[in-house]
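lol forgot to send this yesterday, sorry. struct tokens for the thing we talked abt
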């Protein structure tokens, strides 16, 4: 498998799970948008700019998964996002669903995927690893 294909697959998976990745980052700490963009780029090697991340944060807030408040104590005002209880519920449900999907894929012997460590609410976020469970 060549590197271009690997990068394409990683980008596709990251984009498909971007909302859950953001929720998982916010579960660890409240952050402003640029922090989230930077953590995604450093953690996944994929750049999603403001035109992708900020509308998604707005949608997550509209759904009640995150709340935001302006931090006026920084050098410049920043909107800081925080995970809500509903967001935690969605994150847990998604984690369980992904685990079930992966379990079924492995059980059926149809697809063999190298295991990535499951990151739970009690685990610190590893650098450079996929946050959500992948088989």
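and heres what i got for the seq, position by position
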């Amino acid at each position: 498998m060549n590197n271009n294909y690997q990068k394409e697959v990683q980008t596709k998976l990251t984009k498909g799970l971007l909302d859950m990745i953001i929720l998982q980052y916010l579960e660890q700490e409240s952050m402003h948008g640029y922090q989230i963009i930077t953590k995604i780029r450093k953690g996944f090697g994929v750049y999603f700019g403001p035109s992708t991340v900020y509308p998604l944060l707005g949608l997550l807030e509209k759904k009640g998964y995150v709340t935001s408040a302006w931090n006026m104590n920084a050098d410049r005002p920043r909107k800081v996002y925080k995970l809500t209880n509903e967001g935690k519920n969605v994150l847990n449900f998604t984690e369980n669903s992904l685990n079930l999907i992966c379990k079924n894929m492995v059980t059926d012997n149809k697809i063999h995927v190298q295991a990535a460590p499951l990151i739970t609410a009690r685990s610190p976020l590893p650098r450079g690893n996929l946050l959500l469970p992948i088989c």
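The longest strand covers residues 66-71. anyway ping me if u want another try
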